[in-house]
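ok so heres the complex, two chains, lmk if somethin looks off
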Amino acid sequence: MITNKLSWKIGGEAGFGIMTTGYIFSKACVRAGLNTFDFTEFPSLIRGGHNTYQVRVEDREVHSPVKSVDILVALNRQTIELHEQELTPGGAIIYDSSLELERKIRPDVKVFAVPFLDLAKKAGGERLMVNNVALGVSFALVDFDLKTLLKVIEETFKDKGKKVTELNKAAAKEGYDYMRQLKPEFGHRLRKAKTMNRMLISGNEAVALGALKAGCKFIAAYPMTPASGIFQFLAGYEREYGIIAKQTEDEIAAMNMVIGAGFAGVRSMTCTSGGGFSLMVEAVGLAGITETPAVIVEVQRPGPSTGMPTQTGQEDLRFILSSSQGEFPRVVIAPGDVDECFHETINAFNLAERYQIPVFILSDKHLGESRTTTKVFDTRKVRIDRGAVLSDAQLRRMKQFNRYEDTKTGVSPRSIPGQRHGIYTATSNEHGESGIITEESEDRVRMVDKRMRKMKFIEREMPKPHVYGSPHPEITLVCWGSTKGAAMEALTWLLRDHVKVNLLHLVYLNPFPSDQVKAALDDGQKILLIEGNATGQLGGLIRENTGIEIGHRLLKYDGRPIYPEEIYDKVKEVLRHG
Amino acid sequence: MVSLADLDREKEVMTWCPGCGNFTILSALKKALVSLKVEPHNAVVVAGIGCSGHLPNWINIYGFGGLHGRTLPVASAIKLSNHKLTVIAQGGDGDGYSIGIGHFIHTARRNIDITYITHNNQIYGLTTGQTSPTSPRGTVTKFTPFGSLEDPLNPIALAITSGATFVARGFAGDLEQLTKLFQQAISHNGFALVDVLQPCVTFNRTNTFQWFRERVYKLDDGYDPTDKVAAYRKALEWGDRIPTGVFYRVKRRTYSEGLPQISKTPLVKQRIGNVDIVKLVKQFM
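and the predicted structre for the whole thing:
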């Protein structure tokens, strides 16, 4: 009997509440003190497509989904056709008995044909309630506490009124009792674990929460999957927290608004995906030359162009690094998990204001929209640093205020419109120290040097890349951003197999931490690059900055996240064949 | 007391062509600000790209010279961040009616309380003479050597349709009227457009000061600017006679007035030091 280690997946037609159902399953597990990682797949349409929600449950921390599934709940035939092969031997398939199957289900899995609709009706409900029946059936199969499930159902539907809530609960109970009286034999069970302070949160929600904590007052964005969740969250708290969330006519307006708000002295941000960011690119340079703080969250999806709107990828790193004409300082941060999403967003706001630059948070669909269990964010060390903003008294004492004064760090103390002695003009043209435009070569060189000088100082205070695992590895895994989760899982499995392996994970990609990367890879070990793109963009950066050419690559660009199994197998292959 | 001298940036060299209509616009803007007692540090002018884009360099108020066509999003965000400021966006006909036309329509319908001044010379000046969205059909330029095949758009009618709550037209040959129009536009609570007929003395040899002087006339006291249908009728008048003045004016709730979160304190003045997120964290537990 396997306790507290389960991979559960539900699939059905889009528009029938699959996402809510999966969320309830996961939340009930979290309430029981377990850890989950939720992974959803859905096409870019509202009705009629095929949706799945997968929840991996363990009693230790989980960092990614796995490929295999122990329980597959099929509300439509497609779920069986597409996902049956993912089932582990001895796993279970629970399907709607009204479905007409064209062929036999694998003989090595347990099959439960459940009259979902009959049970829902018996409980007084309708077709939409079959999801709750499925939840009850699933939890009974793993001998899990019904009360926890009912409580989460109650919380989820409480806004829809008592009647709806009670019907949903009754449907779940009906499903639970049905499976119980079958007395099923099954190899997995879930038990309550030690309750801890845990939250179930997605990367997008964590970024939004970080922005709120950082004092972001203004967000402008145009709707785009998979970034919209960030805007939506902040828009919901607009009034309570004193934020303006402005949906704009396009991404060009969004980015220009972010700059307007930054110029006016408020912390501002935008969120988008690659296509929307393409429209923002010109304005990124405007932030660069006017030295206006801006935070840009780019939640990647596979491109080019519309690409795969609801899938994941890591294809925009090179694009972000060199977006917009000309040269100017910028910081690019790619958080690897929800905790990093929260804390790095706060850092992004501090860096943007301290250095008066655009700062990027580079996320992706997999990180942004997958929920995962994490410790409650530790906010004790959160500091808000607004950088060099001159006070009215300081401005009054100045003989002449030069907004773009050439300083040692390259950072020029700024004023905010409304301050009596701080009047200046910011301009997209090259300008002198006062801000007035110039085309003199001497002014030009001074301003470029001043701006680029900031990079040296950012580099000095930048957190070092993380290295996890063996101190003297025979193989080092290298990845960035959201691939961290799968790599951490694979690392755990490999260490368990006594493989001398470690993981170099990069969060800060610009300025590039050349020295640390070189040190981590210079041990004569084998190196495996793992990225969600076709060209090995980080690999190229590493070569450019350190001269190290990485020999082994695991590149995935099918729109799906990288699974730990794939890394595990690749490492074994590399070690076997050299 | 604010004086015209307070708004001067005498040291800076001005690069507009002698006789350019932009000089009148700059003078009228300064006079309007002085007459309304707007203190220089409480005013922001946002400019785009084009000859008019240089204006913020020559007036001593806060300035932001942004990208081509993007004055309105920048100006909108400045206003939303601190609605106590007087915010003026200004740019050319290419900037506002071509590349930036989308923002024009949306800023108007939002009724964000800013003033938008267009230097409408019916030509691209800084790029040395191409047709603009207000050039007449048949305009011959380097880019349209056989004459442009497009009809011009009508900024006044478009502004009314888009929901602008103050729509006016001025003429750069009439400083006095222009100053009054700017005063009214700045005082108006809502999105205010002043489209200024501003002859380009270098690249537009058709629509000259002389050409306009023979045609422009002022909407008189008998004209009711609250009558939307009358406003449309006047907006369509163009040719031998060209009306100037306030075409349309209406009261409507501004965007900022719909935001209770800034009704007491402008966004920029709100404290951000210690935001309490405990309640939100609980929602995820």
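quick notes: The domain at 4-258 of chain B is CATH 3.40.50.970 (Rossmann fold). thats all i got rn
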